[in-house]
Amino acid sequence: MRDSGSLGYIVVEGPIGVGKTTLARRLADSFGSDLILEGADDNPFLERFYENPRAAALQTQLFFLFQRVRQIQTLQQSDMFAPVRVADFLMEKDRLFAELTLDAEEFKLYDQVYQHMAVSGPQPDLVVYLQAPVEVLRKRIAERGRAYERSLDPNYLHRLSESYMAFFHDYNASPLLIVNAAEIDFANKAQDYTLLLDQISKIRSGRHYFNPGPLEL
């Protein structure tokens, strides 16, 4: 188990396919911590959304909202003295997706539900935002082989990446590490992961950037 210092709650975020769940799992293993995953595979509407976004956007988004609220509530009730907790989502990302996928009337309804249900979870001690070009995201999505993701619209992925960039451009609620994940393989290369882990372990405040080139073992 690695010493995390004063990092009690770490969130890994980024667009579909960038590797946030993989990194969250590795961090939880390194720190011997609780792991909180958003569970996209549990959403029964997600496949329908990829096949026909306009027909299934609202139910897909509401399912995710209810799911994330439950997870935040569970997090609030968990042992606050646990060494570290790692999650692969921010609650705020739910609204980011809603703004991207819902039409005006659907968003009004979503917003009413959100305002009624939204829970203020603990503030992360660090947010790790993973970035990669859309072509890299598409390659990684294809490699993981989820059948329902085959119909994912590249334009949607591009707009999602832009939405993430805009969101984190103004983000200052927690210390932030922005990682160029295009050239590193923290899932399979020990040196890549170790360098990133060292960066994460050092940060206690402010905005930071990690932009490594390809690394040789």
Automatic annotation (TrEMBL):
What are the alphabetically sorted keywords of the record?
Answer: ATP-binding, Kinase, Nucleotide-binding, Transferase
Record's keyword annotation contains Iron: no
User: What positions does UniProt annotate as the active site of this protein?
Assistant: D88
Domain called Deoxynucleoside kinase: residue spans? 10-202
Bilayer-spanning residue ranges: none
Q: Which Gene3D superfamilies does this entry report, sorted A to Z?
A: P-loop containing nucleotide triphosphate hydrolases
* Molecular-function annotations in GO: ATP binding; deoxynucleoside kinase activity
Q: Which residues form the signal peptide?
A: none
Note the InterPro entries from the entry.
DCK/DGK (IPR002624), Deoxyribonucleoside_kinase (IPR050566), DNK_dom (IPR031314), P-loop_NTPase (IPR027417)
Binding annotation for ATP: G14, P15, I16, G17, V18, G19, K20, T21, T22, R140, I141, A142, E143, R144
Protein's name in the database: Deoxyadenosine/deoxycytidine kinase
UniProt keyword ATP-binding present = yes
GO cellular component entries: cytoplasm
